[in-house]
Design goal:
The strands form 12 sheets. This protein has a 4-stranded antiparallel beta sheet, with no helix packed on it. The chain is built from 8 helices and 41 strands. The protein is mostly beta strands and about 700 residues long. Keywords: Exocytosis, WD repeat. One of its GO terms (molecular function) is GTPase activator activity. It comes from Buceros rhinoceros silvestris. Belongs to the WD repeat L(2)GL family.
């Protein structure tokens, strides 16, 4: 498992939230717990040439007549390594034992809270100490012992053979979870206030030890935060979660990622800047979005100086004055980085505004970046700035205010929404036994969408469909950047080029001269502006694409270099496709004369939000495939548009138009699949292709 396309699916008959999933060791089985307190046993079975999850058993844990629901409300599940039983911790503090074969409770093996209390110190001998089992963990070296953690902080090591407590540990904070070290000599407890502790399992010591090497701080955040689950790894593994999808195109040695979160970069940037406590300081919000970090993959730890360059996008133009925050100061001297992606050069934009677009050409060793003030080109092989271009219009004063205050307010609303969701989960699970949890989360999600909509600064979403004035704010905001080897000066010679599209409907094209490999480090990369196109309707440019002589989009250079894509046709005439929020327009190259266009329906208020080229293969033969545009609009529908004739092929309703966060988070793959967030912690997957369907077709022997 873990390879692309290896997945299995099962669907509960009940329309209830899945609260927990646990694998049965070595059995191709798993157990699910729903918020109605029902347990379900699933097995992987072959059916119609594929393996699928089939439900084998289900049952709901019931207490004696007249007992409150909390008596049997399941809070923790432990599948035992014997593969014979499950241990179920409950809100009442009792632990029930379920036989897997029959999927029924073994009444005579229940571990009662009274039995536990008989063996603990007087400080914890009251009944409330054993309320709500928060965690159950089997000893990694001794299957006859399990660790039981109670919500109020009491932790006991229970002997299953002799039915007694062998060790007990008295925590002072509300417990969230427990994790064993692999040798079983110690375990880690996580607590509701963000703290954690390491406990040795010995007859002499019952006090926690300091955690010196696990993470850099004894508390992950200020105030309550439900420490997340973790294994004892180095800190960057704990603190850098990312949502990403692999592009299935560049081979296992050069795998490339479409990354929709920059959390991973924040860790590296924090090291480069020397931020002592990036994870709960204001520095964290400034580290990444306002700079460009160029990183390379290294299999080993390394210590080196991160080179630094500055790009002044205003170029000392008169009449402009930045009113935002100052740039961050870089760290002097070498910085040590763990194996993985390691920064080797940092480009700081001046003014230090949010980086709105990026493009990387791995063969030419160039990276282009854009902000609300302009764009620039950086040679990361020579570590030299090639050029910058200011795109500000005299009316763009709002772009000089500095986005930090708006970013802060958006982050604050997002943080508050996440905390509300987390609190609703904790309170519903611990206080009300799961009832109402789905509605709480739904309410929090609705507030999340509402907050996000109010705080979003992408003003074009709210504009009417009409020709825009050059006086509109943020016209210089760079929306898209694109590298292409095409015919820009004349029809006989092709050359590298960089294209940029702005919020005001302007497209800039620069001819590039990249020295050959043998002189790459000796001669500078040169750039000269060759074209400037102004769309009449001045709608924001969201995509730029060059089609080769066969009207096929230019392939990714890295794919061509590794024989994963055919080389483009450089004999016939190339064409330029410019996608704005309101229309698609094809131009001839190199003259840049208009050839054809497709307008979106103005009456519906429809606007392009995301666009990508998708390759659609035939489900009946491997000999046929075609490239089309996959387009997501602000109404949440997806349109497939043919290339190069711009004919609307089909339209699918996909995301609710009110779901602003879902539309904003949507990403496409190059084979016509996609993902979008349906809540802050869940994503939906869809496919537009009959060949690459969402339904998994995998077999487990």
């Amino acid at each position: 498992y873990g390879a692309p396309g290896v997945e299995f699916m099962g669907l509960h008959e009940e329309n209830n939230t899945v609260m927990q999933i646990h694998f049965i060791p070595d059995q191709c089985q798993l157990v699910t717990l729903l918020d109605d307190n029902s347990l379900h046993l699933w097995s992987l079975k072959q059916h119609s040439g594929a393996s699928e999850l089939q439900e084998e058993h289900r049952f709901t844990l019931k207490g004696p007549p007249g007992s409150p629901p909390s008596a049997t409300q399941i809070t923790a599940v432990l599948p035992h390594s014997s593969r014979e039983v499950l241990y179920l911790g409950t809100e009442s503090g009792n632990i029930f034992v379920v036989e897997l074969l029959s999927f029924r409770v073994l009444e005579d093996r229940t571990i009662t809270s009274e039995a536990v209390l008989q063996r603990v110190s007087d400080d914890y001998s009251n009944r409330r100490s054993c309320e709500l089992v928060e965690a159950l963990r089997e000893h990694p070296k001794n299957p006859d012992q399990i660790l039981i953690g109670y919500s109020r902080g009491l932790i006991v090591l229970w002997d299953l053979q002799n039915n007694k407590v062998t060790h007990h540990f008295l925590g002072s904070q509300q417990l969230e979870n427990l994790y064993w070290q692999r040798d079983g000599s110690k375990f880690i407890s996580c607590h509701y206030d963000g703290s954690y502790a390491q406990w040795p399992v010995s007859s002499e010591n019952r006090q926690p030890e300091p955690l010196e090497n696990l993470v850099p701080y004894g508390q992950l955040a200020s105030g309550p935060s439900s420490v997340p689950g973790f294994s004892p790894l180095l800190s960057h593994h704990l603190l850098a979660p990312c949502l990403q999808h692999p592009t299935e195109t560049v081979g296992e040695d050069h795998q490339c990622w479409e990354q929709t979160e920059h959390s991973l970069l924040q860790y590296a940037a924090a090291r480069a800047y020397g931020v002592a406590d990036c994870w709960h300081s204001e520095s964290c919000s400034k580290v990444c979005p306002f700079q460009v970090l160029v990183m390379e993959l290294n299999d080993e730890d390394a210590e080196h100086v991160v080179d630094h360059a500055e790009a002044d996008l205003l170029q000392d133009q008169e009449g402009y004055r930045w009113k935002g925050h100052e740039k961050l100061k870089t760290r002097d001297g070498p910085v040590r980085f763990e194996a993985g992606f390691q920064p080797f050069v940092l480009v700081q934009c001046q003014p230090p505004a949010v980086v709105t677009s990026l493009a990387l050409h791995s063969e030419w060793k160039l990276v282009a970046f854009g902000t609300s003030h302009g764009f620039g080109l950086f040679d990361h092989q020579q570590k030299r700035l090639v050029f910058v271009k200011c795109t500000l219009h005299p009316s763009d004063q709002l772009a000089l205010e500095g986005p930090l205050s708006r970013v802060k307010s958006l982050k604050k609303s997002l943080r508050q929404s996440f905390r509300r969701i987390r609190r609703s989960r904790v309170s519903s699970r611990k206080r009300r036994g799961g009832s109402g949890s789905a509605s709480e989360v739904q309410e929090a999600n609705a507030k999340f969408d509402q907050d996000a909509l109010q705080e979003m600064e992408l003003a074009p979403v709210q504009r009417k469909i009409e020709a825009r004035s050059a006086e509109d704010s943020f016209t210089g905001f760079v929306r898209t950047l694109y590298f292409a080897d095409t015919f820009l000066r004349d029809s006989s010679r092709h050359s590298p080029s960089l294209w940029a599209g702005t919020n005001g409907g302007t497209v800039y094209a620069f001819c590039l001269r990249v020295p050959p490999a043998e002189r790459r480090m000796d001669e500078p990369v040169r750039a000269e502006q060759a074209k400037e196109i102004q769309l009449m309707h001045r709608a924001p440019v969201v995509g730029i694409l060059v089609l080769d002589g066969h009207s096929i989009p230019l392939p990714e250079p890295l794919e061509v270099a590794h024989d994963l894509s055919k080389s483009p046709d450089m004999q016939g005439s190339h064409q330029l496709l410019v996608v704005s929020e309101e229309q698609f327009k094809v131009f001839t190259l190199p003259k840049v004369s208009s050839k054809l266009k497709l307008k979106l329906t103005a009456l519906e208020g429809c606007r392009v939000r995301k666009v990508t080229v998708a390759n659609f293969g035939s489900c009946k033969t491997d000999d046929y495939s075609e490239n089309d545009l996959a387009v997501l609009t602000n109404l949440g529908d997806i349109q497939i548009i043919s290339l190069p004739f711009l004919k609307l092929q089909i339209r699918y309703p996909c995301i609710r138009k009110e779901d602003v966060s879902g539309i904003a988070s949507c990403v496409f793959t190059k084979y016509g699949q996609g993902f979008y967030l349906i809540s802050p912690s869940e994503f939906e997957r869809f496919s537009l292709s009959t060949k690459w369907i969402v339904e998994p077709r995998c077999i487990v022997d």
